């Protein structure tokens, strides 16, 4: 069977073990004579799947009792609107601008809120994470929004800012489940599934209970956290197959030692790639050292016009989707949880070969 190392930023690689389990269970799930895709979302079998998915996620992330886990649709992009519609009180919100996804979150929020950009790394092309001090916060802000991992620029918050009594909201789409994270620091965490959780179509929202039930009058029912909270994510048909796949991925993460185990593996993967880039005088990393993502690693070949050739030759060797985002250029290796260490080693040996050829 042909399998490549897929460095796509999302949708991205899934663990082969998970795909094989899904394949084996596909036509006849638990002797029901049906696929999970064909099960009623109100059936006992699906209730078991969604309950188990939630329990596994709670266990992996150590989510406290006073937080709800919602399985919804619409992607992280829909949460850009859902967050202000649920949290709006004074009508002011603080945003940290760390790149493309932050900017999209901000422009959506501007439809509903007075948005204050309290910090930005636009001055250096989003190659670093600005430091957030308490003095920067708007005292009566309804929330502070950050993008914990910047998928396109390859930066990540190494320290989560302390926002005191102001709820901290995080777009964690591209680094949820990649490392240990203290959920109690956040009011809302949201993530599209297609990077570290499962197939596209599912969105996970983790929200503190006191932030539920205060949606603005004109908030659509489907965007109101209360709708999904009080129905156990079964107000309407949830993305059932996505929830099932997420459950299989959560089981896989648990088997690898939970977030502690997966973090060690991710740090090792990112470490060997950054180390190789650092000692090379052919490749360079555009990202400041203290702001580096361990999920998305952009790199460039300074002063040479070799990007297209690199991407093409890598693809011929089973190293897929290494082209950098069109807004940044160069290359980008997205090495989410399912990427094995061997995949990163294969990338490094290709980079060495390519470097030698073009020195
Ligand atoms: C991929 C991504 C998004 C967009 O997610 P959708 O589910 O496609 O809406 C938003 N934010 C970040 C950080 C992402 O990586």
CATH architecture name of the largest domain? 3-Layer(aba) Sandwich
CATH C-level class of the largest domain is Alpha Beta
| Number of DSSP-assigned strands | 13
Structural class: alpha/beta
Strand content: 15-25%
Bound ligands: pyridoxal-5'-phosphate
* CATH topology annotation of the largest domain: Aspartate Aminotransferase, domain 2
The profile of the biggest β sheet is: 7 strands, mixed
Number of helices: 9
Mean pLDDT, as a whole number? 97
Q: What's the N-to-C terminus distance?
A: 35 Å
Order of helices and strands: EHHEHEHEEEEEEEHHHEHEEH
Please state how the strands of the largest beta sheet are arranged side by side. Answer: 2-10-9-8-5-3-4
Which regions contain 5 or more consecutive residues with pLDDT less than 50? none
Query: Radius of gyration from the CA trace?
Result: 21 Å
Described by the principal axes of the CA atoms, the overall outline is globular
Pfam families: Aminotran_5
GO molecular function: O-phospho-L-serine:2-oxoglutarate aminotransferase activity; pyridoxal phosphate binding
Enzyme class: transferase
Family: Belongs to the class-V pyridoxal-phosphate-dependent aminotransferase family. SerC subfamily.
């Amino acid at each position: 069977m042909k399998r490549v190392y897929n460095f796509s930023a999302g949708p991205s690689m899934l663990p082969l073990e998970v795909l094989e389990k899904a394949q084996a269970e596909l036509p006849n799930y638990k002797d029901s004579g049906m696929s999970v895709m064909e099960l009623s979302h109100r059936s006992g079998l699906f209730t078991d799947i969604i309950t188990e998915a939630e329990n596994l996620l709670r266990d992996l992330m150590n989510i406290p009792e006073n937080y709800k886990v919602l399985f919804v649709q619409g992607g992280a992009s829909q949460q850009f609107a859902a967050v202000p519609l649920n949290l709006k009180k004074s009508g002011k919100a603080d945003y940290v601008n760390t790149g493309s996804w932050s900017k999209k979150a901000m422009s959506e929020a501007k439809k509903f809120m007075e948005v204050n950009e309290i910090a930005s790394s636009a001055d250096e092309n989003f190659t670093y994470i600005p430091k957030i001090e308490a003095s920067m916060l708007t005292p009566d802000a309804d929330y502070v929004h950050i993008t914990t991992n910047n998928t396109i620029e390859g930066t990540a918050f190494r320290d989560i800012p302390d926002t005191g009594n102001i709820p901290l909201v995080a777009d964690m789409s591209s680094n949820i489940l990649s490392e240990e994270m203290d959920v109690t620091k956040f009011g809302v965490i949201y993530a599209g599934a297609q990077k570290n959780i499962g197939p596209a179509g599912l969105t996970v929202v983790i929200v503190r209970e006191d932030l539920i039930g205060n949606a603005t009058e004109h908030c659509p029912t489907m965007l109101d956290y209360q709708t999904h909270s009080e129905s156990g994510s079964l107000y309407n048909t949830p993305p059932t197959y996505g929830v099932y796949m997420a459950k299989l991925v959560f089981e896989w993460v648990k088997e690898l030692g939970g977030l502690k185990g997966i973090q060690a593996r991710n740090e090792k993967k990112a470490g060997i790639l950054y180390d190789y880039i650092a000692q090379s005088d052919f490749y360079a990393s555009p990202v400041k050292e203290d702001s580096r993502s361990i999920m998305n690693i952009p790199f460039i070949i300074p002063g040479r016009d070799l990007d297209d050739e690199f991407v093409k030759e890598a693809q011929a060797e089973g190293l897929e989707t290494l082209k950098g985002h069109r807004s940044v250029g160069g290359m980008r290796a997205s090495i989410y949880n399912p990427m094995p260490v061997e995949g990163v080693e294969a990338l490094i040996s290709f980079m060495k070969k390519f470097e030698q050829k073009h020195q």
